[in-house]
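Sequence, please.
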């Protein structure tokens, strides 16, 4: 599959407002979240450990993710074989970048905040599950604050149903070391390729 991509330039107010100092641990003291001017409960319990069944069995180099913004869908590929697909919600208040990227870090839980209260785009989202960053602070992640997948709803990140994000989190590389809740890609543990197009 051959695709052409445009370069992507960020202004300082775009992005998901992520906290990169995170250990990826669940924070039980965070009980409240905000999205689109609404107060809602944050997750109160951590998710179970890695699922026993992980998507596919291909090598890390054969795995790649395709995100189709026009269809609002994500696909997990192993070479030319599609193993998984799901609806998603991409950028509404800021664009989701297009191009080819690699996952540079994975955090089982992350905190995200940003937007502006005066125009009703403020959000504060603790314990965002299964976050996979692919470009600066843009990531794929689970979503507990809306269920409107198939429609743009984010500030540039790729919102996924939490079960879909969990499957991808454990399928993608870099591989999460046993007993850790975060990992950054390295030469020996590179990130899965992510291709995003309109």
């Amino acid at each position: 599959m051959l695709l052409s991509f445009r370069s992507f330039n960020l202004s300082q107010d775009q992005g998901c407002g992520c906290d990169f100092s995170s250990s990826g641990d669940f924070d039980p003291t965070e009980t409240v979240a905000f999205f689109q001017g609404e107060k809602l409960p944050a997750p109160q319990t951590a998710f179970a450990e890695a699922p026993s069944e992980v998507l596919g069995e291909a090598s890390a180099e054969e795995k790649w993710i395709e995100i189709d913004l026009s269809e609002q869908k994500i696909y997990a590929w192993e070479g030319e074989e599609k193993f998984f697909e799901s609806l998603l919600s991409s950028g509404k208040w800021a664009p989701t970048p297009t191009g080819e990227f690699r996952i540079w870090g994975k955090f089982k839980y992350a905190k995200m905040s940003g937007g502006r209260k005066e125009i009703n785009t403020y959000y504060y989202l603790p314990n965002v599950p299964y976050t996979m960053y692919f470009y600066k602070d843009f990531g794929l992640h689970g979503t507990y604050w809306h269920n409107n997948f198939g429609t743009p709803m984010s500030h540039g990140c790729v919102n996924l149903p939490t079960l879909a994000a969990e499957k991808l989190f454990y399928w993608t590389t870099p591989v999460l070391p046993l007993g850790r809740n975060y990992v950054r890609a390295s030469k020996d543990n590179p990130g899965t390729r992510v291709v995003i197009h309109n």
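Residues 162-171 form the longest helix (10 residues).
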